[in-house]
# Entry
Amino acid sequence: MGLIANKQTNLSSKSSPWVSYLVIWAGVIWLTMIEGTQASLVGLAKVDEEIFENTHPITFRCCHVTSEGDRLERYLLGRQFMVCMIIFLINFSGGPIADVELWGFPTAINHIFFTSGLAMIFFTVMVGQLNSQINASKCMLDYCNNTFAFITMWFALGIEFSGLLHATYLIQMTVVKLSGKEMTTKEQPRTTAQSIFFWFRCLMSLAILCGCFAVTVVAILDKETTMWKGVSSTAALITFFVLICIVGMLEGMQIAFFFATKLEPADVGDSYFAKKTYELLFKEGENNLSNFMDGRQLFVVAGMFLVARVTSLSLEDNTFGVPDGLQAVFSTGILGAIILTIIGSITWQIVASTFPQAFLGNPLTYVLLRVCLFVHTIGICSSAWVLAEIYKKTAGLQKDSVYIGTREERKMMRMPDQSIKIRITPGHIIKLPAFAEKTPQSADIEKDIALKH
# Structure
């Protein structure tokens, strides 16, 4: 906030600091709802909606909408673009310009925390994401029971419906075809009109994606992005593709790990790294799946911010001679957000859902898991738990068990959770519900046996 006040960020240096404050806080607040709504809708997908229809009517409406056909996956697709776009907007508003100075801090501190953007990354992760995920994974019913969540859900579905991201369906069909497996769906076959509309959006999305790549690559090579001065265009281009791969790996890992929760140790396969990854994830006495989700968030957001810095166009230059108005839109980072959503996120999730065991056996998966667990262990993002507790008390959020009982109690009420609603099948993506999915299926069985005893 101090950098914005001193006009030392991308947007505030060219306009009023108040405009930057409006953009960055609107983005962070909306980001909290996007992350919280995802955790709620995915976590509640297995619960019978009738249990909370009267106590949480808006949450019921949200779950009812996303439970129809493949709408939950469509929502997740649109939601992924919303996250990328908002993070790019936060970078557009709060990203520091070169050689910033603040409040007399030593030069080293200025470079490490401010010029690099590290302070902005911590701010976004802990205020905008982790604290809402923590609350929403435990208080799903209360967190989603408001008009803001309902609007956010429909906004995400609207983005998917627009066709902006339909190139992912082409990738999905190609990957599943290459695997020799079959695609499953909960929906009826498309009519002729629906098929024409679907394929039109797929081709439109593919054209947009190619255009985004063309403009972005040219801008990077011509040094017309917000990349730090002194970095060569070749290094910037290599950095761009490396970051896309790292973010993609982290996105795909949560899909592969969701698959791993349904496996017994003997079913993991013969791969050395697959076994090591599984053993580390479900190490006895530790909740490393939840810990991974905690540490992973910092790296995903850091990767997104770095991609935003590499790809966001500067306001002064007009790439390909486009009009000033369109150039201003480009400068928000929307081109990079589209590329990151389709190529750096959804594509990797599709591959992970189609070849989960191969993903588990990737040595880089094990290395990144270790790094994420290390970040969790040192507690660098632990203030998010404090923020979550403050918000929980202030908003009066209650745990879901207060309203609908525990899973075991719902079984006794003859309204058991329906695991069939959450599926991992080739080509389909599903997010881990933040910190809610903690144990493999075998551990759940052991809990049931312990409860009986």
Residues 292 and 373 are 5 Å apart (CA to CA). The two ends are 56 Å apart (CA to CA).
